[in-house]
Design brief:
Elements lengths: L1 H5 L4 E5 L1 H5 L19 H4 L2 H6 L1 H17 L4 H9 L5 E5 L5 H5 L3 E4 L2 E8 L5 E2 L24 E5 L8 H13 L2 E5 L11 H7 L3 E5 L12 E3 L3 H9 L1
Parallel strand pairs: 1-2, 1-7, 2-3, 7-8, 8-9
Antiparallel strand pairs: 4-5, 4-6
Length: about 240
């Protein structure tokens, strides 16, 4: 692995929720925050939930956005930004936060979208302005589109929605081109993103999993590094 980096091989990094959890971002499936603990995130992240109760869904996402705003990139995020200065590196993430960008990385593909890529639910018009966060508010009426007056939604991929075409094409291209893939902090359960390591291996890449716990991918990779992103990745850049 280090030889690939030192000799200028092409690196693809696939990151998941474990990467952001080290910055204090609650994982999608594991929040124990008292305000939201009685809600099932899997049921809120759908277009149907939005149609049924947009204020509740927006309130939950607005809380998640604020959690990201309050967090800081960790040593793993910063190490990837530094590594990209040394070798050709394509960063593909399943995370919907902006911690990679705030650490100085260029993200080639947000395969599950971004919390902050706001757009109209009806017409798709993009929006950048964000309303003020109200601490403790569970139901928040979504902002309105300046083009058609429908409600503005977060730019994430909800269950039942297709991945963004451009992001997925970039992710596939990065997996096929790399000579080394680092799979960092992902459970390997969410497809199609979980299929990228196998795709990289079929095209000749060495695949290394960086995760403190065994995952669904652990038996399908070339090397397992039992450590967190913040522990392991800084060692790659010295």
């Amino acid at each position: 692995m280090q030889r690939t980096i030192d000799t200028g091989g092409t690196v693809c990094v696939l990151t998941g929720a474990g990467m952001s959890a080290e910055s204090g971002i609650p994982t999608f499936r594991g929040t124990h925050d008292s305000l939201w603990s009685r809600f099932d995130p899997m049921r809120l992240a759908t277009a149907g939930a939005w149609r049924e109760d947009p204020a509740l869904v927006w309130g939950w996402y607005r809380w998640r956005m604020q959690a990201v705003r309050d967090a800081q990139p960790n040593a793993g995020h910063r190490a990837l930004a530094a590594l990209a200065q040394r070798v050709p590196l394509s960063l593909v993430t399943q995370n919907v936060d902006d911690l990679h960008e705030r650490a100085g990385s260029v993200v080639e593909a947000h395969v599950h979208g971004s919390l902050f890529a706001l757009r109209c639910f009806a017409c798709g018009h993009a929006h950048t302005a964000l309303d003020d966060y109200v601490e403790g508010a569970q139901r928040v009426e979504p902002m309105r589109c300046t083009a058609c007056s429908d409600r503005i939604r977060p730019g994430v991929v909800w269950f039942g929605e297709a991945l963004p075409d451009d992001a997925w094409a970039s992710a596939v291209d990065a997996a096929e081109r790399c000579t080394l893939m680092l799979v960092v902090g992902t459970s390997g359960l969410v497809y199609p993103a979980a299929g990228l390591p196998a795709l990289a291996r079929r095209h000749g890449a060495t695949v290394v999993e960086v995760n403190p716990e065994p995952t669904a991918l652990s038996t399908e990779v070339d090397l397992v590094w039992r450590a967190t992103a913040a522990q392991a990745l800084p060692l790659l850049v010295g």
